[in-house]
Write a structure and sequence with these properties.
Blueprint: E1 2-5, E2 15-16, E3 27-32, E4 35-42, E5 51-57, E6 62-68, H1 70-74, E7 80-84, E8 88-91, H2 96-103, H3 105-126, H4 131-149, E9 157-160, E10 182-191, E11 194-201, E12 205-207, E13 213-215, E14 222-225, E15 229-231
Antiparallel strand pairs: 1-8, 2-7, 3-4, 3-7, 4-5, 5-6, 9-10, 9-15, 10-11, 11-14, 12-13
């Protein structure tokens, strides 16, 4: 159980999501189209400028922890704002993963042995040449593999082929991320056995305070997987 307490005025002052980084040691709650949602942000004031996010997982019905940086916060639309928390909030955080590791120390020790072994192997390799050489090779090989095997190359047009659940910072983006929307892929990544894309829809909308969709001038990118996008020319 985590208790968040902030003293101050009860007057609501909305700020942009990225502006939260300007207020170290403060706590914020997310607002979408002027309405509060169960997402909280803590600015620990660390040099890396990362915010701790306490977000509610609707599928597991529990709060979880993650982080976001300045770049990620800027991707929130203008209809998503933050307000300083001025009252007390009790939040129960899921700590099962951490408890499981500590309840079985032998597994943790074995993992640490593997880490030490890998570090030693890496050091032996790097002693045979300059470190920059190996980093350049890693980057070159990684870029080549992504370019060769990605189903949607950078710069190509793609189309949304599956209904995307819009919650949290994506609330109000239902029309932007509807099936059939076309856009451009600006970067490619690979994680958890899937290709992931930074996808910029050609046309984007947000909901105003009256619940009406308005077209956006400044376009955002969305992080979508290969199961949600398809190369546009394949469906012509």
């Amino acid at each position: 159980m985590i208790t968040i307490t902030k003293k101050g005025t009860t007057e609501l002052t909305h700020i942009k999501m990225s502006e939260m980084l300007n207020y170290p040691n403060d706590i914020f709650q997310e607002y979408v189209s002027g309405k509060p949602v169960e997402w909280y942000f803590i600015n620990p004031g660390i040099a890396e400028e990362n915010l701790i996010i306490i977000w509610y997982d609707d599928e597991d019905n529990e709060y979880k922890l993650s982080t976001d940086n300045k770049k990620g916060l800027k991707e929130y639309g203008s209809h998503v704002t933050a307000v300083k928390v001025t009252n007390k909030i009790n939040i129960s955080i899921n700590m099962k993963r951490f408890k499981a590791k500590m309840n079985n120390p032998s597994i943790f020790i074995d993992k640490m042995k593997d880490v030490v072994r890998c570090i030693n192997e890496a050091q032996n390799i790097m002693q045979s040449g300059p470190l920059s050489f190996y980093f350049e090779k890693l980057v070159t090989h990684s870029d080549a593999l992504l370019s060769k095997f990605t189903p949607i190359p950078v710069g190509a047009k793609a189309i949304i082929i599956r209904q995307i659940e819009c919650k949290g910072g994506w609330l109000g983006s239902e029309k932007t991320l509807a099936v059939g929307q076309i856009g451009t892929v600006i970067s490619v990544d690979y994680d958890n056995n899937k290709f992931w894309f930074s996808f910029v829809p050609d046309k984007q909308w947000f909901k105003n305070n009256d619940g009406e969709y308005c077209e956006k001038k400044n376009l955002n990118s969305y992080h979508l997987s290969e199961h949600e996008l398809c190369l546009y020319k394949e469906v012509l």
